[in-house]
Design brief:
The complex is a heterodimer. By secondary structure, chain A is mainly α. Helix content of chain A is 73%, strand content 4%. Chain A contains eleven helices and four strands; from the N terminus they run H-H-H-H-E-E-E-H-H-H-H-E-H-H-H. The N and C termini of chain A lie far apart (53 Å). Chain B is of the alpha/beta class. Chain B is 38% helix and 28% strand. A six-stranded mixed beta sheet of chain B has the order 6-7-8-3-9-10, with helices on both faces. A four-stranded antiparallel beta sheet of chain B has the order 2-1-4-5, with helices on one face. The termini of chain B are far apart. Classes of the chains: A mainly alpha, B alpha/beta. At the A-B interface, helix 6 and helix 7 of A face helix 2, helix 3 and helix 6 of B.
Chain lengths: 307, 236
C-alpha cells in the first residue's frame, strides 16, 4: 500500500510539471493547428538560463529559495522572448504553407536550440545547487518532500491562473475566439498575429517554470533534457485532447501517475526482468493506445458548430 | 459624398479570375444590393472590400482613403464591418461573449453596455439565450447574433453576405425588416444576396454581377421592372 501511495504522490508531482508543458503544446495547437516540437527545448532553455542565473548568484549571501526565485524571474522573460522570436522568425513566414513545412521547421528549430544550448552550456550534466530545504514528511508510510509539495502547489496555482486568464479576461476571450475562427476574429478587429504571439509567449512562460521545476526535482539539467520531456508532454496533451486546456492538465497529471505507477510496479510484476528504467515506455504506450482507441483524447471536441 | 468607391477591381485566386474589373460606388446612408447567380463573384467582391482577399488589380477607397495595405482588423476600426457568409458565430463562446467580441475595437465600457442593451432590445431571443453557447442557437438566431455582433462594432459601412442563406421564409422576412431598420438608423449597407427579389425590394439601388462583371446598375425599383432581371433572377 505504501508503495502505491508513494507512486501516486510522485506521479502527481511529475504530472503537474508535464501538465504545464502540455499546456504550451495545446495552446499553440489550438490556435495554429501546429505541433510546436521546439516547445520541449524552450523548457530546456528555461532550465539552463535559470541554473546559470542561480550559479551566478550563489556567491552572494542570499537565502537559497530567494536565489532560486530570482533565477526563475530571469528565465521567464527570457523564454517569453524566445517563444515570441521562434514564432516570428520560423513559423509566421510559413503561415500559409502546407502543414508539413511548419512541422519540419519546428523539428529544425528544436535541433538548433539543442545545439546552441550545447555550445553555451556544454555536453555534461549540470547539477542543481543544494539551495532548497530538504525537509521530508511522512504520510501513511509514504514520504513527500517540501520541494514536491511546493512544485505541485505552484503548478496548481499557475494552472488556475491560466484558466482564469482564458475563461474570464478579454485576452482569453480573444484567444478562444481566434482559436475557433481566425478569419472571423479578424472581422471583429482582432489582430490575429498578436493573438498568436501571445499564445507563444504565455506557453513559453509556463515552459520556463516547468524547466526550473524539473531541474530542481531531478537535481540536474542537460542540453538534451527537453527532447524526452517535450515528447511526454505532447503525449499528455494528446491524451487529454489536443487543443483543450483542461485536457492538457488532466492528461499531464494522468500521464505522471501512470508513469510512476508503471515504474514502481514493472519490476515486481515481471519478476525483475524489466526494471524501473522502463519508465519512459509508459508515456508512449499510452500515446499509442489513445491514438488507436480515442484519437480525439479524453476531453476532445464537445460542442460542434452548426453550418 | 461617396463612402465607398471601387474602381476596376479585379480579384483572382487559384488561377481563376473571380472578379474581372468592376466599379461600385456607395453613398452615405444608402442600402445597396449586389445580386447575381451562384459563382458570379459576389462573395469574392465583398471579401475583397473587407480586406479578406487581396485584389489583383484596381482600387478601393473607403472614406476617401485607399484600403490597399490595410489589414481587415484595421478596416474594422474605421467602421467597415462585415457579416460573413455562414454567419461566422464563435460556436463555443456564449452569445454574450460573441457580442463582446463585436465590441473588440471599443473600450468605453458604459457605451458597450448600452450597445448591448440595444442589441438585446432588438433581438429579445438573444437575451434569453445570452449564456448559451453560440453553436447551440438555431440558424435564424445565429443570423440575429451575427448582425447584433456587427452592430456592436458600430459600423459605418456594413457588408452583409447572404443574410437569408439557409433560413426559413418567415425568419428571412424578420431579418430583412431588421436590415431596413438598421439602414433607417443611418448605417450604410451593402448587401450580397442570391434572393434577388427580396434584396431589391428592400434596397435603394442594385448592381447585377455576372461572371465577375457588372452588367446592370440602377435604382432597385427599376431593376425589379427590368425585363432581363425579371427573366434571369426573378424567375418570371
Amino acid at each position: 500500500m505504501d508503495i502505491f501511495l508513494q507512486q501516486i504522490i510522485n506521479g502527481l508531482v511529475l504530472g503537474s510539471i508535464y501538465a504545464l508543458v502540455a499546456l504550451g503544446y495545446t495552446m499553440v495547437y489550438g490556435i495554429l493547428g501546429l505541433i510546436n516540437f521546439a516547445h520541449g527545448e524552450i523548457v530546456m532553455i528555461g532550465a539552463m538560463i535559470s541554473l546559470a542565473a542561480i550559479q551566478a548568484m550563489t556567491g552572494f549571501a542570499l537565502p537559497g529559495p530567494v536565489i532560486v526565485l530570482m533565477g526563475l524571474l530571469i528565465a521567464i522573460p527570457a523564454c517569453m522572448l524566445l517563444g515570441y522570436g521562434i514564432e516570428r522568425i520560423a513559423y509566421r513566414p510559413l503561415r500559409h504553407a502546407p502543414r508539413l513545412a511548419p512541422l519540419i521547421t519546428a523539428i529544425g528549430v528544436s535541433i538548433v536550440l539543442q545545439n546552441i544550448a550545447m555550445i553555451i552550456w556544454g555536453r555534461q550534466y549540470i547539477a542543481f545547487p543544494p539551495l532548497l530545504p530538504e525537509d521530508t514528511y511522512t504520510i501513511a508510510g509514504a514520504s513527500i518532500t517540501l520541494l514536491q509539495i511546493f512544485i505541485f502547489f505552484l503548478a496548481t496555482v499557475i494552472m488556475a491562473g491560466l484558466i482564469f486568464l482564458v475563461q474570464k479576461t478579454r485576452l482569453g476571450r480573444t484567444i478562444r475566439a481566434t482559436a475557433q475562427n481566425p478569419e472571423v476574429a479578424g472581422l471583429m478587429g482582432v489582430n490575429v498575429n498578436n493573438v498568436i504571439s501571445s499564445t507563444f509567449i504565455i506557453g513559453s512562460a509556463l515552459a520556463a517554470m516547468a524547466g526550473l521545476m524539473v531541474s530542481a526535482y531531478y537535481g540536474l539539467a542537460h542540453y538534451y533534457m527537453g527532447f524526452l520531456l517535450g515528447l511526454k508532454a505532447f503525449s499528455a496533451a494528446v491524451l487529454g485532447g489536443i487543443g483543450n486546456l483542461g485536457g492538457a492538465m488532466l492528461g499531464g497529471l494522468l500521464l505522471g501517475v501512470i508513469e510512476s505507477l508503471g515504474a514502481g510496479y514493472i519490476g515486481p510484476l515481471t519478476g525483475g526482468v524489466l526494471g524501473s528504467h522502463y519508465q519512459d515506455v509508459f508515456a508512449f504506450f499510452v500515446l499509442i493506445l489513445v491514438l488507436i482507441f480515442r484519437p480525439s483524447g479524453l476531453l476532445g471536441e464537445r460542442v460542434s458548430e452548426r453550418p | 459624398m461617396s463612402l465607398l468607391q471601387v474602381r476596376d477591381l479585379k480579384v483572382s485566386y487559384g488561377g481563376i479570375n473571380a472578379v474581372k474589373g468592376i466599379n461600385l460606388e456607395i453613398h452615405k446612408g444608402e442600402l445597396v444590393a449586389l445580386i447575381g447567380a451562384n459563382g458570379a463573384g459576389k462573395s469574392t467582391t465583398l471579401r475583397a472590400l473587407a480586406g479578406l482577399e487581396h485584389p489583383s488589380g484596381g482600387t478601393i477607397h473607403y472614406q476617401g482613403h485607399s484600403t490597399a495595405h490595410q489589414a481587415t482588423y484595421q478596416l474594422v476600426k474605421r467602421g467597415l464591418v462585415m457579416v460573413p457568409e455562414g454567419r461566422g458565430i464563435f460556436g463555443r463562446l456564449t452569445v454574450e461573449e460573441n457580442l463582446h467580441m463585436g465590441a473588440y475595437c471599443h473600450d468605453d465600457t458604459s457605451q458597450i453596455a448600452s450597445d448591448m442593451r440595444q442589441v438585446y432590445a432588438r433581438f429579445p431571443r438573444l437575451q434569453e439565450r445570452s449564456h448559451q453557447a453560440g453553436g447551440t442557437l438555431s440558424g435564424g438566431e445565429q443570423q440575429m447574433l451575427a448582425i447584433g455582433r456587427a452592430l456592436m462594432s458600430r459600423p459605418q459601412l456594413l457588408l452583409l453576405d447572404e443574410p437569408s442563406m439557409g433560413l426559413a421564409p418567415l425568419i428571412v422576412q424578420k431579418i430583412f425588416e431588421t436590415i431596413r431598420d438598421i439602414a433607417a438608423e443611418g448605417v450604410t449597407i451593402l448587401l450580397v444576396e442570391q434572393n434577388a427579389k427580396l434584396a431589391l425590394e428592400n434596397s435603394h439601388r442594385g448592381y447585377v454581377l455576372e461572371s465577375g462583371l457588372i452588367t446592370l446598375q440602377d435604382d432597385a425599383k427599376a431593376l425589379l421592372r427590368n425585363e432581363k432581371v425579371r427573366h434571369a433572377y426573378l424567375g418570371e
